[in-house]
Specification:
Elements: H1 7-19, E1 40-44, H2 56-64, E2 69-76, E3 82-84, H3 105-108, H4 129-136, E4 141-146, H5 155-165, E5 172-176, H6 179-188, E6 194-198, H7 207-214, E7 219-223, H8 229-237, E8 243-247, H9 250-259, E9 263-266
Helix pairs in contact: 5-6
Pfam family, one: GDPD
GO biological process, one term: lipid metabolic process
Organism: Paenibacillus catalpae
Length: 270
């Protein structure tokens, strides 16, 4: 699939590279990648600062920009298929309206999931997780987030079954804001690293809570402006790792790296 990057998005890539002090030249086929001495770079919903989130175009661009992982969101369609979309509603990111799980997967495919970002991405569609695994599995790491799992009983089991069908894949991680969902994923897939996303209303975490989370979560991922030295040290002390989300500025990028995080989840993986 050819990479489609609009002139507007290309300008943003160039500006960010300049902001980060790069003297590299940007072309449609050659992008600057992060040096090896920095944390994992996780493309939030793909390269969502440059392309429509959670689309194949965004994932392809994240790979071209040198991200280590693509982060993506999954929900269930009306007919029980794992589909890749962030919101419970269609309205923000597609030309559809209403609730995702009111539609079958074939109905969801008919909606345009690119034009909201830029007319140049018209025709991008909602994908299934199977399609993403088929295209990107083994090419780039995948961080899969379960969205509103309480709305979809059995979501984690469906996800586990899908990943078992792609048993040979490596560099898969799972995460959720719902701690119980993360724990269920760990129980179903004990060999797959699991993360918990810490919402601000649960922060800071007590020592007892960190102990509990560390019993099943490999990563404890926190909002970048809430992280401090103590939080990172407390997670590392328990043998865990920490990612900072969602990094959108040079200031936050530098701060996260200085704190010694293990991964940076960003809209701009350039």
């Amino acid at each position: 699939m050819a990479i489609r990057i609009t002139s507007h998005a290309k300008l943003k890539v160039v500006l960010l590279l300049l902001l980060l002090g790069s003297s590299a030249l940007l072309t449609s086929a050659s992008y600057l990648t992060y040096p090896s001495n920095v944390p994992l770079i996780v493309a939030h919903r793909g390269a969502s600062g440059y392309a429509p989130e959670n689309t194949m175009a965004s994932f392809e661009l994240a790979e071209q920009l040198g991200a280590d992982y693509i982060e993506l969101d999954v929900r269930l369609s009306k007919d029980g298929e794992l589909v890749v979309i962030h919101d419970v509603n269609l309205d923000r990111t597609t030309n559809g309206t209403g609730i995702v799980d009111d539609y079958t997967v074939n109905e969801l495919r008919r909606f345009d999931a690119g034009s909201f970002f830029d007319p140049g991405y018209s025709g991008e569609t909602i994908s299934t997780l199977e399609e993403v695994l088929d295209r990107f599995g083994g090419r780039i790491g995948l961080l899969i987030e379960t969205k509103d799992p309480e709305r979809y009983p059995g979501l984690e089991r469906k996800l586990a079954e899908e990943l078992k069908r792609h048993r040979g894949l490596k560099d898969i991680m799972l995460q959720s804001f719902d701690f119980d969902s993360s724990k269920r994923m760990h129980e179903l897939l004990p060999d797959v690293p699991v993360a918990v996303l810490v919402h601000e209303d649960k922060y800071p975490l007590s020592g007892d809570m960190l102990d509990e989370l560390a019993s099943y979560a490999s990563y404890i991922n926190c909002k970048v402006d809430q992280l401090d030295w103590k939080a990172v040290a407390d997670i590392h002390k328990r043998g865990g790792k920490v990612m900072a989300w969602t990094v959108r500025t040079e200031k936050d990028m530098k701060r996260a790296k200085k704190l010694g995080v293990d991964g940076i989840i960003t809209d701009y993986p350039a």
